[in-house]
Amino acid sequence: MTRIWKENGFAAQDPWVEETEEVKAADGQKVLLPLDAFITAAEESNAVDLGVVIAPADDVTKLKPYLDRIAIVAVKFPAYNDGRGFSHASLVRDRLGYQGEVRAVGDVLIDQIPLMLRTGFDSFAVTNAVALKRLEEGRLPGIANHYQPAARPAAEVSGYSWRRRSAS
């Protein structure tokens, strides 16, 4: 079972569906389109509030002309060891300046969520049983000290200018 988690808890309802052969969007649901299908839909209509799914090998810079029409960017994590999604989120936020929702979908594990938050994700499609349990309990792991800047600003800390410490 997939549940949508944000920092304020689990969402009661979520309209976004990534269609597959087994799963189709029902009435009242919105479709997350693969990048090429999204671009086609955006060019053939004036629709706004579109959703797009970014696969690991996709070029996120192709989204630039359509940013004002995107309601959600879902970044796929097909396996826990494929980190390209972190780069995609960072590029969408920092380079393209996208301010809307960025969601991690796929193999989202509890240990990755704090790092995903730092790179620009703000919602997570969670299916992993351990992650679901820990999020329900409010047990989000974290690292207090960070040495790199991120999409999410670090809390002010006195001391070394190159060392960042997140708010605990």
Describe this protein's structure.
This is Oxidoreductase. InterPro entries: UCP030820. It is a single chain. This protein is α/β, with parallel strands linked by helices. The protein has a single domain (3-143), classed as Aldolase class I (TIM Barrel), CATH 3.20.20.70. Helix content is 22%, strand content 24%. The protein has four helices and ten strands, in the order ββββαββαβαβαββ. The strands form two sheets. An eight-stranded mixed β-sheet has the order 2-1-8-7-6-5-4-3. It has a two-stranded antiparallel sheet with strand order 9-10. A hairpin with a 2-residue loop joins β1 (3-6) and β2. The relative contact order is 0.14.
Q: Tally the helices.
A: 4
Main structural class: alpha/beta
- Strand percentage: 15-25%
How many separate domains? 1
Q: N-to-C terminal Cα separation, in Å?
A: 30 Å
How much helicity do the residues have?
Answer: 10-25%
Strands, count: 10
Contiguous uncertain segments of 5+ residues: none
CATH topology label = TIM Barrel
Computed CA radius of gyration, to the nearest angstrom = 17 Å
Class in CATH?
Answer: Alpha Beta
CATH superfamily: Aldolase class I
Largest sheet composition: 8 strands, mixed
Series of secondary-structure elements, N-terminal to C-terminal: EEEEHEEHEHEHEE
Shape: globular
Q: What strand line-up does the widest sheet have?
A: 2-1-8-7-6-5-4-3
CATH architecture verdict: Alpha-Beta Barrel
